[in-house]
Specification:
By secondary structure, the protein is of the alpha+beta class. The termini are far apart. It is elongated and about 90 Å long. It contains eight helices and 24 strands. Strands 2, 4, 5, 7, 8, 9, 10, 11, 12, 13 and 14 form an eleven-stranded mixed β-sheet that branches. The chain folds into three domains: 73 residues, no CATH class; 233 residues, Rossmann fold (3-Layer(aba) Sandwich), CATH 3.40.50; 104 residues, Immunoglobulin-like (Sandwich). Helix 1 packs antiparallel against helix 5, helix 4 packs across helix 8 and helix 6 runs parallel beside helix 7. Helix content is 21%, strand content 29%.
Length: 508
Amino acid sequence: MFAQPAMWAPGKPAIRCRVERGQSRSAREPRQLISIVIHSLHCITGMKGDISLSKQHPLLTVSALTTLLVWPLSADDLTLLRPVPSALFQRDRDDSGEVRLRGTYPAGTEPGKIEARFAGGEWQVVDAQPANGVFVGKLRVPVGQGALEARATANPNLKATVDPVAVGDLFVITGQSNADGRGTEHIKLSPNNPCLGVKYCNIAWSRGDDPSSLDEKYGSPWPMVLNALIPEQKIPVGFIQAAVGSTVVKQWRKGGSMYTRMLKMVEAATDGGMAIKAVLYYQGENDITHYNTLSVLGDYAQYKENLLAAATDFQNDFHAPFLVGQITNLGGERARNDGVRKAQQESWTEHPNIRRGAVVWDILPSDGVHYRDEASMRAFANRWTLAIRAALYNNKDCAPPRLTSMERLSPTSVKLTFDRALKIEKWDGAPGTKALGFRFTDGEAVLTDADVVSTEVRGQNAVVTLHRAVSESTTMDIGSGVDGQGQPVLRDAKNGMPVMMVYGAKLK
């Protein structure tokens, strides 16, 4: 129905949107329609005052504008400006949610009341007193998807339909390139999904298939996550893609460039409603490197301070959980990697709005930084799916094992006790006989995986035998730096999650 996207650039003539069924439209839309469109552009771009499409925002595309100007736009028609096809609204009850409607009707006509219905349900009044050619309202509908219809009670010829529209769970994706997606494989939504999966990316709603990155080139974990969640929850699920590569934690605080941009995107996607299920945050690689001048360069205290402040900002604006993923190892900077990842792990229990996100310290990314091939992307998506199930859908079987005690059985053997049953495997499911990822510090001596003779798993316990004796003052790390990355490690016997990273655990 819509024209193919054509990127606008400064200096080109004012954009005209043409669709298959209609003619080019420039200056003859009703005044109230132009007012609503300009308001929508303000929401998206943050621009104030007069807007000339020939001089403004480079992200505006023909497809984006046709999202705002839903056909038909004839002066003789009732027009639904919002919602647009594939739009998803967050449910506010287990079984229902509100759909926000905006539209126009022919000037000089008497429409009576404006009614709407969803998926063939009962007609309900959404605007009892439309005026000046404009109507606005809300419609409470059951969770699901279907056609949204609107009509004027005084004129049966004034009607409009948008299909599909959905009510379910909506996630906001934040962070940097791995959250945006750098996958070389494009994943499609399963045709067997019982409900709709959608995305909001580049100022437009569409099916939740790849490509789903900001530049519309790459795959991301989110279509795989949708393919897992939709059949389980039996509701429509969607995501707003707000992540941007090479960003740092300071930019995701209130007033930061990424936070400001994200707010505008959510406002535009939800038509100002701002209701979402949760924020999914995966970021930290650029806070280890120097490539962004705002990087904390792996400083534990600075990263933690900014992350907790960002969580408070998201809580104040969305009143929804903030899931913080824990990044994988990047490069050879052990101290910087550990500083960022330790801050992320501690945030899960130190802020009331933060929940545990994906745990991926054991996965070896395709190029050392990004999840590019399908195998590593699928593992990354699975970790997010497990985190979402645990944090938002009350699935207690999706947590990683947590160390509860460490005991020296003999001078060369240590018993580790976790809160869940264990097994030894690589991230890709390949079995192992000896778990790796350990680092024992005994005074000046450091024992690594090369010093591990064996690891014997017995239910929730793992006995680690070493080449040399360790004293009772020995401390242990699991997953520090590159330790255990891409190797067989201790993980949950059922869900395959690696044990939580350990920093400086002491013998008892």
